[in-house]
Request: fold
Amino acid sequence: MFVVKKLVSEFLLPSTLSLALIGVGLGLLWFTTREWLGKLLATIGLGLAVLSSYQVVSDTVLAP
Reply:
């Protein structure tokens, strides 16, 4: 249970999540016929990466 908690918490970090979304989106674009889903996931991942880099957004997320 401890290992699962550590893996899930590591995956939910903004940088890891955005890179995973971009990677899955690019994989869908290159290797399947679901181009719309690949474009959507890659765009969401890129948007999350950009938003999480702004100090206003990151401070809001970290506030108690």
The mean pLDDT is 88. The helical segments are 2-11, 14-31, 35-53, 55-62. Residues 56 and 62 are 10 Å apart (CA to CA). The longest helix spans residues 35-53.
